[in-house]
Design goal:
With 426 residues, this protein is an alpha/beta fold. It has 14 helices and 18 strands. A seven-stranded mixed sheet has the order 4-12-11-10-7-5-6, with helices on both faces. Strands 16-17-14-13-18 form a five-stranded mixed sheet, covered by helices on one side. The radius of gyration is 22 Å and the shape is globular.
Length: 426
């Protein structure tokens, strides 16, 4: 396999939607990936949070092999053995009552928005002719389809496709007073990522989430939590909202659910589910026997790993805080469990550190321009954390020396200097 020939073919044949790293991966095992030249990479991105069990997990491979030989697809016009079992596990983990299975996180969020509108229409007893508004958060990301994009609070994703779905307004992040100002009886749902992922690993505060819960309960609106990236064990609990002691009306999950096979889920209560009837929503591929059988095994394995996520996540955060104390270019360290971030004082520096780690066989990624995002598999060990921290330390030191040798820092770098913010943990 030749990377250049594949790059040329994609350039001519695919829509130009991705700015890919120039690496051609051919196999993976555990916490490692190998490229076409045989170089090994420590994977601390896990396919953007998807490969929570690492690569080629033996229990997952066995289920894929066995189920692929039995039944892959039937459509949702018929029954198969795995949807109800998977729903039983997810509802028990989440404190919810019912599930809907689809193909992705974005689809799960679309279903959540539709269900919120359907519930409002069926239960509009507050005198408002229209109970349909959605309040979402600034800096949020919920996906790239029109409904999900309409509730995404970042102009760079929204502006090229305007006008979007009407009835959406944005609340300042973690600003409870702004939420109260914008909330009224016309709101059918408040939409929140419990931890903003693409927005730079930003944790919702206890106070803000509590305010959202109280407002929605009083007016019979719904609290929608997007846990597509932060859910299913990523924080050391099954769901990130369980760190707050607050129960939503709808929660959406996806990324690690089926170990890389396309599968998302919407989880909700019996009360809200009454608004959905046959024909109002559906999917051809969602919740098929292969993906659901794999997801059941993934959840079984996750039961064994929650403690490792919490313990090593705390250790990892402390080590990153040590880096912050050592390097003035680190503005902030934040996160919980194995969803962590380092915010640097310039986009150029973040690019340079990312490239340095990639050259040294370590995979992370950059989001929100200046934030290094770390989403390792749940199976990592202390030695893997130490290796990544050592590489980050060296990369930050090297970038600093390079900057000193090459003359004055750029204007953007100078503007980012100053008192560092305190590290944030939950």
């Amino acid at each position: 396999m030749n990377l250049n020939s594949i790059m040329d073919a994609e350039k001519n044949l695919l829509l130009p939607t991705y700015d890919r790293q120039k690496v051609l991966f051919t196999r993976g095992k555990g916490v490692y990936l190998w490229d076409a030249k045989g170089k090994r990479y420590l994977d601390f991105l896990s396919g953007i949070g998807v490969n929570a069990l690492g690569h080629a997990h033996p229990a997952v491979l066995k289920v894929i092999k066995d189920q692929a030989g039995k039944l892959i697809h039937t459509s949702n016009l018929f029954y198969h053995p795995y949807q109800s079992e998977l729903a039983k596990r997810l509802t028990k983990m989440s404190g919810m009552d019912r599930a809907f299975f689809c193909n992705s996180g974005t689809e799960a969020w679309e279903g959540a928005l539709k269900l919120a509108r359907a519930y409002a229409r069926a239960n509009n007893s507050n005198g408002h002719k229209a109970k349909w508004r959605l309040l979402a958060l600034e800096n949020s990301f919920h996906g790239r389809t029109f409904g999900a994009l309409s509730t995404t609070g970042q102009a760079k994703y929204r502006d090229p496709f305007m006008p979007l779905v009407p009835g959406v307004d944005f609340v300042a992040f973690n600003d409870g007073e702004d939420l109260k100002r914008q909330f009224d009886g016309s709101v059918c749902a408040v939409c929140i990522e419990t931890i903003q992922g693409e927005g730079g690993i930003n944790l919702i505060t206890q106070e803000f989430l509590q305010t959202a819960r109280e407002l929605t309960e009083k007016s019979d609106a719904l609290l929608l939590l997007d846990e597509i990236q932060c859910g299913l064990g990523r924080t050391g609990k099954y769901f990130a909202y369980q760190n707050y002691g607050i129960q939503p009306d709808i929660v959406t999950v996806a990324k690690p659910l089926a170990a890389g096979l396309p599968l998302g889920a919407l989880l909700t209560t019996n009360r809200v589910a009454t608004a959905m009837q046959p024909g109002l929503h559906g999917t051809t591929f969602g919740g098929g026997p292969l993906a659901c059988a794999v997801a059941i095994e993934v959840l079984k394995q996750m039961d064994k790993l929650k403690g490792n996520v919490a313990k090593l996540g705390g250790y990892f955060l402390a080590k990153l805080q040590d880096l912050q104390a050592k390097h003035s270019s680190v503005k902030s360290v934040r996160g919980i469990g194995m969803m962590l971030a380092i915010e640097l004082d310039s986009a150029d520096l973040a690019k340079a550190v990312l490239a340095d780690l990639l050259a040294n066989g370590i995979l992370i990624n950059r989001t929100h321009d200046t934030v290094l995002r770390l989403l390792p598999p749940y199976i990592i060990e202390k030695k893997h954390v130490d290796e990544v921290v050592h590489a980050l330390d060296a990369a930050l030191a090297s970038a600093g020396k390079s900057n000193n040798h090459e003359g004055p820092p750029s204007a953007s770098l100078r503007a980012g200097k100053g008192p560092r913010r305190k590290a944030v943990a939950a």
